[in-house]
Specification:
The chain is mainly α. It is 76% helix and 0% strand. The radius of gyration is 21 Å and the shape is globular.
């Protein structure tokens, strides 16, 4: 039986956390599924209202994370997010007024797109979603110490992606024509 305090508590949690849960879902599953993931997350929250801790955001993001994992295999999700990030980079680069800040942002997004799904998640939970490292560790299901180690490694890989050569697709090598191959 529903209690009026339950309804008020859920409504407060929903209004306080929905934008962050939605943003998390967009960053992990893309815009096409973000509303579904956020909706399913809050449906689970309503059903398990007694399980929600006083600081609900990490718990909700953990639920959202599990929702996404249930919907996608890792390869499908990685491809969709990479495609979206690359499209974002291309749109940013195509803008007429390309300032230094935009170029840096485009380089960062391109580097993020070249990282693995787990590295992107580790980096964005703190930087984009505003979680503390302790909260982020709870979202990915590890200890804070383990999270720090993984975050350090992800940052190193991001630095390498920023300083490394562009992906192979950007470095097009001309393919010799049949007449050129015959002369070799």
């Amino acid at each position: 039986m529903e209690h009026p305090d339950d309804s008020r508590r859920f409504t407060a949690i929903y209004h306080a956390c929905y934008p962050q849960v939605y943003a998390y879902a967009v960053s992990r599953a893309g815009r096409d599924l973000a509303e579904d993931v956020a909706g399913d997350t809050f449906l689970t929250a309503w059903r398990r209202l007694d399980a929600i801790p006083p600081a609900p955001l990490p718990w909700l993001l953990g639920v959202a994370r599990n929702m996404i994992r249930e919907r996608y295999r890792v390869e499908v999700r990685q491809a969709g997010i990479t495609t979206e990030l690359r499209a974002w980079v291309e749109r940013t680069q195509a803008e007429a007024d390309v300032a230094d800040g935009v170029a840096e942002r485009a380089a960062m997004l391109d580097a993020l797109a070249r990282l693995g799904d787990e590295d992107r998640e580790l980096l964005t939970l703190v930087a984009w979603h505003g979680l503390s490292t302790r909260e982020a560790a709870r979202v990915v299901g590890c200890s804070t110490a383990t999270y720090f180690v993984r975050l350090h490694r992800a940052r190193r890989r991001l630095e390498q992606a920023l300083s490394g050569p562009p992906p192979a697709a950007a470095r097009r090598v001309p393919v010799p024509t049949q007449s050129q191959e015959c002369t070799r």
